[in-house]
Amino acid sequence: MSHAESVTPVHQAVPAPLPANHLVDTLLPVRPALVDRGSAVRGRPGMVDELLAGPEAVAAVVSRRQGLVRGSSLVLTGARDLLAELNAAGFAPELVVYLGSALPPADLPAGTELLLFVLPEPPEPGTAGIPADAAWAGFREVAAGLTATSTALFVESSAIANWHAAHTHCPRCGTPTEVEAGGWVRRCPADNSEHFPRTDPAIIVTVVGPDGRLLLGGGGPPEARNYSTLAGFVEPGESLEEAVVREIQEEVGVRVTACQYLGSQSWPFPASLMLGFTAVTEDAEATPDGVEVTRARWFSRGELQDAVLSGEITISTRLSIARSLIEHWYGGRIQDLADA
Questions:
Q1: What is the model's pLDDT at position 23?
Q2: pLDDT for residue 7
Q3: What's the pLDDT at 14?
């Protein structure tokens, strides 16, 4: 290389060097864990029984995909006494799972041992040891008002309870499996195979066109008003990026030319991990597949805000990663009718 070739022209800015292995923040930053799930100790035989026999452990309760809540918190009550009252009233848990122990960032004393009671039927508040001022509610109904600790415990409880409900038998031979490791393993007594909780990865994407507009879509009746980001499950053998390209092409006929990961959100209803991306395309037309997506529409920033405020459309709530992705593209908070 000649001297002339090696000199940087004065009109070109020289980028500042980055440290090795430099990391940038994702859209949804890494937050501190609130629960130590105790993977190293939960496999000890008899651990759950020991916790149930002592006075210190507390329990959350779920039944039929609903949790027991009071105000902004998931109800946590003494596990030993609650179990005795449930058993006496004929509401014995069909499953007891070790959730872990509270870490310092949680709004519980550090080290508090946490159990989950999964009930086949939800007792009426005020009976069977269930507090009279508590209520049964699905996560979507109460998530906006829950504390961070209750949110984490509700999501973990839902995920593990849903897995157990769907994996009662060995997939190899059909034998009923037995629960081990504090509720985190199911073992087949016939062939000794171990089966672990499953999480299905799904990509969720904001697609931005050549003019900077955002593509949103929706399912159900073509006249429905709800719009959101496009999403789909990752198939075996795919990378996440390949899934982004395939799903967007399948659902709306748009060819993605580049995509970037922004963050993730656990959504265990029943068992998904939503992996958020933003993607760009040179296509300006979108054609819904008519099955998963029945309508698709491009929005400028002004068009989207006006359509939401007028009630012409609704978009995902702020509980979801979909809303975070949309507002990341928008560059700030999108006002809802309730805000106005």
A1: 65
A2: 35
A3: 52
Contacts 24+ apart (CB under 8 A), 178-185: 179/95, 180/43, 181/42, 181/43, 182/38, 182/42, 182/43, 182/47, 182/48, 182/97, 182/98, 183/42, 183/48, 183/95, 183/96, 183/97, 183/98, 183/116, 184/39, 184/42, 184/97, 184/98, 184/160, 185/43
* Cβ contacts of 78 within 8 Å, gap of 6 or more: 55, 57, 58, 59
Pairwise CA distance, residues 324 & 319, whole Å? 9
Residue 28 burial (10 A CB sphere; 0-12, 13-18, 19+): middle
Q: Which amino acid is at 132?
A: A
**Token pair 């507009």: residue:** 213
Query: Which pLDDT does position 292 carry in this prediction?
Result: 94
Q: Which two tokens stand for residue 47?
A: 């651990």
What pLDDT is stored for residue 107 in this prediction? Answer: 94
Quote the pLDDT of residue 338. 84
Q: What does pLDDT average to in each consecutive run of 10 residues of the chain (340 residues)?
A: 37 57 68 91 94 97 96 96 97 98 96 98 97 95 92 95 95 96 97 95 97 96 95 96 97 96 89 95 96 96 97 93 95 88
Token duo for residue 296: 């698709």
* Separation between Cα atoms, residue 95 and residue 99, nearest integer Å: 12
Q: Please state, in angstroms and rounded to a whole number, the distance separating the CA atoms of residues 185 and 287.
A: 44
